[in-house]
Design goal:
Layout: E1 2-5, H1 7-13, H2 19-23, E2 27-32, E3 35-36, E4 39-40, E5 46-47, E6 51-55, H3 58-66, E7 71-74, H4 76-85, E8 89-90, H5 114-128
Parallel strand pairs: 2-6, 2-7
Antiparallel strand pairs: 1-7, 1-8, 2-3, 4-5
Length: about 130
């Protein structure tokens, strides 16, 4: 997971230096079943931010963040290219966020075919670039 915002948003609103400051910022929130998804930290603390935009689309969240609407809490994998290019910046990078497990399921029983093993190994190698 990652907390991120555009450099323009952070220049206009300031960079939060702690969770209390983070709560005072605008957030683009992911909504699941009509409820906003809370921001969770690895230490177990949780809060549900106030939102300027609620959506069930990670693409809409990314576009809103790129356009300076607010801070997003979403899968780092979905915004890594934007982070690398400087279009988005991490917010509170010193605060650990939870990791999201990735599972590979197959219907081959105990004998995994080579094609499935190769695919699983490929995905694992790609995810290792993100610290997974």
């Amino acid at each position: 997971m990652a907390l991120a915002a555009s450099p323009a948003y952070l220049a206009a609103r300031g960079v939060p230096d702690d969770v209390a400051a983070l709560r005072r910022h605008d957030h683009v929130r992911y909504v699941v079943g009509g409820r906003p998804y809370p921001v969770r930290f690895a230490d177990g603390s949780v809060f549900t931010p106030e939102g300027v935009l609620d959506t069930d689309s990670s693409m809409a969240m990314r576009i809103a963040a790129l356009n300076g609407l607010g801070i997003v809490y979403m899968l780092r994998l979905a915004i890594q290219e934007d982070l690398d290019a400087g279009r988005l910046s991490l917010v509170l990078p010193g605060h650990a966020l939870p990791t999201v497990p990735v599972y590979a399921l197959h219907a081959f029983g105990r004998h995994t075919p080579a094609r499935a093993r190769l695919f699983i190994d490929f995905v694992a190698a790609q995810l290792s670039a993100f610290g997974a």
